[in-house]
Design goal:
GO molecular function: ATP binding
Largest sheet: 7 strands, mixed
CATH superfamily of one domain: P-loop containing nucleotide triphosphate hydrolases
Distance between the termini: 55 Å
Shape: globular
Keywords: ATP-binding, Nucleotide-binding
Protein name: ABC transporter ATP-binding protein
Structural class: alpha/beta
Strand content: 25-35%
Helix content: 25-40%
Pfam family, one: ABC_tran
CATH class of one domain: Alpha Beta
Order of helices and strands: EEEHEEHEHHHEHEHEEEEE
Radius of gyration: 20 Å
CATH architecture of one domain: 3-Layer(aba) Sandwich
CATH topology of one domain: Rossmann fold
Bound molecules: adenosine-5'-triphosphate
Low-confidence stretches: none
Amino acid sequence: MTPTAPAVRCDGVVQIYKTREVEVVALRDIDLVVEDGESVALLGPSGAGKTTLLWLLAGLLRPSAGRLWLGGAEVGRLGPRALDRLRAAQIGVVLQNPARNLVPYASAAQNVAFAQRAVRRRSRQRTDDLLERVGLAPLRDRPAGLLSGGEQQRLAVAVALANRPRLLLADEPTSQLDAGSAAAVVELIKEMGPTSVVVTHDPGVGEAMSRTVTIRDGRIGAEGRDGEDFVVIGREGAVQLPPEYHGLLPPGSMARVEPVRDGVILRRAEP
Ligand SMILES: Nc1ncnc2c1ncn2[C@@H]1O[C@H](COP(=O)(O)OP(=O)(O)OP(=O)(O)O)[C@@H](O)[C@H]1O
């Protein structure tokens, strides 16, 4: 990754899953820039495309169309080995199912140590610090497969941060945690993951991040900064009305567009 490029840039990214019977358009025309140092909460209803976007940002999927840069590197131009190297050196990932991030027969401490393979020297101190921060120091020698779901989730965050990634990507990293552990994990991500994108349904996580991005039906519909929510004007001027206004302007209804000095007003056209 080059130091001046944003951590992430998506330009018209589309993701289509092809199964034998159907094609599912999971993401369409995603334009997104995440600057270095930002922490972004990725919000949206189930099936909106959040996990798909996270997998694209992790280099685990390649977009069906559009362009995606991780740092200065355009993913579409990287061969499989170059992409693997970039992922190992620069990106930390917490997948939705915590067990998938871990080697089950290795101890908690070994899992964190293995994850430092891309850095030149493993640091016992960093392993100890991370285990301490996620409250797993007393369980350092227990095999990861014998930890509870919540413990595995906390360990997965420690593993993802082990080699000081420039970009941390986490899919629901607090879904199995009580409020106290969730707050500690969010604090850790903000402190040690200098740039992070976190999929979450937890409003507390959303509030802790510097920015929220809401996906609905495969498109970025809204963004939030400093507690204020904005709709995002998409390509060709498309706007997703927030669901709380669907009663006033139901999907499928017609509206008049009235220009005003600094924007437009939409008024329902009575049938
Ligand atoms: N491997 C796949 N093959 C076919 N369709 C898929 C695949 N993975 C996801 N989808 C579909 O793509 C769409 C987006 O799924 P995705 O998992 O990205 O949503 P999500 O917002 O993360 O949902 P959730 O909050 O429930 O995890 C959904 O319609 C889903 O059914």
